[in-house]
Amino acid sequence: MQCRDVRDLAESFLSEQLLVETNHDVLRHLESCPECRSELEGRRLLRAAIHRAFLNADALRMREDFARDIRPRLRASRPGAGLVSRRRAVAAAAVAAAAAGAGVFLRPGSLDAIALDAVGDHRNCAVRFSLAEKPIPLEEAARRYAAWYGRLLDTPLADFALSAGPVHVIERHACVFNGRRFAHVVLQFQGQLVSLLVTEDRPWLPALTDRQGRPRLTWHGAEGFGAVSFATSGHRVFVVSNLSEPELREMGETQAGPLARRLAGA
Amino acid sequence: MTSDRARQHDERVWATFEAEALPHVDRLFRLAMWFERDRDEAEDLVQETLKEALASFHRFTAGTNCRAWLVSILQHIRGNRRRARSRSPFIADPLERAADAVPFTPPVPQELTDDEVLAALGRIPVPYQEVIVLCDVEEFTYKEIAAALSLPVGTVMSRLHRGRALLRRELAAYANAVRRRHEGL
User: Fold this and answer.
1) How far apart are alpha carbons A252 and A229 in whole angstroms?
2) Contacts of B9 (CB under 8 A, 6+ apart)
3) For a designed S-S bond to B36, which of A100, A152, B8, B41 qualifies (C-beta 3.0 to 4.6 A apart)?
4) At a CB cut-off of 8 Å and minimum separation 6, what does B70 contact?
């Protein structure tokens, strides 16, 4: 093992995340290399300094009243009672008012940043081709970010039918809008572009389903486009277009089951 | 009877949550305060994080790292708030390339105060601060950092490498400035 290898592995060595054999190789090198020993000692000291500084900093300490109140406030918040600070409630009201003023029309409870990002992605990627970052193939996204991107390569199928006619897949890729990464399947239905968008969301929450165990659909209307969405465990799925609500709902209902199963790894 | 049983279940969940999650509030707050730089925002963020965690505590796997789980929720909420605040498109960090070219500089932490170390950390771009803090302060594994920040493990490792190079450059610059001051006297 050369000095260069040890420097490359230094972080993992100090974090005790090397395989046993590699760890031994590093230790063997250190026995005979004072420069690398000094380098690693320097790194170890820096890490310790950051740890100590962070945990000692008075500026980062909780206020006593917050520390005292958080437990009873959380306890009182169960089950389902709102625990929204006055500050956030005012902010939420302001967002809702601004959204209404801008012509954004969303069902109560469904106004969220992710839905707006999905509509923005449809408008800027599928319709205007004006994203800041070039889309990449789903295969590449699966390699670079998460395996689930690859599951959109075969779901939905290349062609499927709604009551009013066939739907064709015209492109599949991964793209970024407003910092949020989506798997994006561009569809065509009756001459209109439709975006099926999947993004990661709160993996610690369960999927939202109806009594039959089917994903529960939510309707959003925003900025001249409509969208239906549903949540699986770890993902939000949107179907966005300027189609009518019944058409988008039918498309959502058709695809919700297969997509939820596919995203779960089936 | 049923409501009694539900209440008992609720109390059991609360007791477990209290034992598993609430001991981490101080560390969680320090993280929130570091990144938000605003006490009200940090308190709001921690409160929302704990509320989300309590509501979905059945999803937490007993025996795993509860602080890492809480931090992943906190980072997710933080990310959503940041996106909601700033509608600007994501632009790759232009410093990444510069960080690659940072030459080796010996660190000098033993000569610095805690405030100086934190000031240097605060001067490097936030994506690098995030991984360094989660690695050095929270002592999370790369896998836990990757989960908390929704990043591939490889990106965590490369950001750590680049972030440390930038941090060392900041610290070296500070040490040089101090030395020049002494020499000038």
Assistant:
1) 7
2) none
3) B41
4) B21, B24, B28, B49, B50, B53
Please state at what angle helix B66-85 crosses helix B39-55, rounded to 10 degrees. Answer: 120
Could you tell me if B140 lies within 8 Å of chain A, comparing CB atoms? no
CB–CB of A70 and B88 under 8 A? no
Shortest CA gap B129–chain A (Å): 11
Give B41's pLDDT tier (boundaries 50, 70, 90). Answer: confident
Please give the helix or strand (H or E) that residue A5 lies within, else none: helix A3-14
Q: How far is A256 from chain B (nearest CA, A)?
A: 23
- The dihedrals phi and psi of B89, each to the nearest 5 degrees, come to -65, 150
Q: What is the pTM of this model?
A: 0.57
Residue A19 has pLDDT above 80, yes or no: yes
What is the rounded CA–CA span in Å between residue A144 and residue A132? 19
Residues of B (67-106) whose Cβ lies below 8 Å from A: 69, 72-73, 76, 79-80, 82-84, 87-92, 106
Whole-number Å distance between alpha carbons of B26 and A57? 12
Tokens found for residue B164: 């440390």
Instruction: Decide which of A122 and B8 is more confident.
Output: A122
Q: Of the candidates A67, A73, A200, which has its C-beta nearest B150's C-beta?
A: A200
How do residues B62-102 score in pLDDT, each as one tens digit?
888 899 999 999 988 888 777 666 544 433 444 444 444 44
Rg of chain A taking only CA atoms, in angstroms? 25
Question: What is the per-residue pLDDT across A186-235, written as a single tens digit (0 to 9) for each?
Answer: 999 988 889 999 998 766 555 566 666 677 788 777 667 788 888 887 88
Residue A228, CA distances (Å) to A234, A249, A258 in order: 17, 6, 16
Q: Are A43 and B132 in contact (CB under 8 A)?
A: no
Of B18, B30, B17, B23, the closest CA to residue B138 belongs to B30
Q: Would you call B133 an interface residue with chain A, using a CB distance cutoff of 8 Å?
A: yes
Q: What is the mean pLDDT of residues A172-195?
A: 90
